[in-house]
Predict the 3D structure of the following.
Amino acid sequence: MFPSDQVFIRVCHVKKGYEDRERHIREEFSKRGVPVNFFLDWDVADVTEEAKASFTASNRLRASEISLGLKHIGVWREFLKTDLPYCLVFEDDVFLAKNFVRKLNECLAEIGNPDRRAAVYLGNGCNYYVAGWKLRRGQQLYPASHARCADSYLITRPVAEARLAWIDKHKVSLPIDHQIEFIDEQLGIEMLWFERPIVEQGSQNGAFQSSVAGRRHLLRFKQIDWFLVKHWRRFFGHSSRRKQQAKSGEVLRLAPETGKIGGAKLSGEK
């Protein structure tokens, strides 16, 4: 059974448009026994110049990226108004594993302490995997040097509080998935990958066009590419080389006065 007594759940969506995604989420979640609660604030049309100025520290973000960032942040704020210990955030193009609810309950048990400063990435965003030969029986959470994507993740109250405090001080300079990765690294928040992943993002596996990216792709070619890369990386593993460089101090420099980042690409960028 879905742990509604522990988990606050929201799906980032829009008030009008993308009806195919709404239908997909309702059908997908119903099959898996997961409640559907959409977060509909901060569509592109809702983002005023005043909101941009108060939220962003960069003029390089697209309107769709600002909108999505504000949706994630809005979910965290709503979560903190409750007394629930965990927050589960989805974007509106996800596919769930058949055993999603059982695995989610196992994830909560493995986290152990709800006050733990940890973010668990449930999906296989960018086809990031721990190599199959590194997996251990009875272990599903694996420490990682960087995040996956922001399509499906679980955080605790201390993580939501810490991220919001950082953003209140520095604002946002990056797309939200890259921004939260950077924040968590700066604050020493654990980044954990759930293995094997129990969520897959439709805009990455070729089921949907991206609603944020500026260019469109031929979905059939994307599906084939995703399938081949996925199975290769499930066996051999894959993470971002950029993070290995970052550990050597070669990239990722934060300007304290703005929170802006300089250096090489972040994980997931191509």
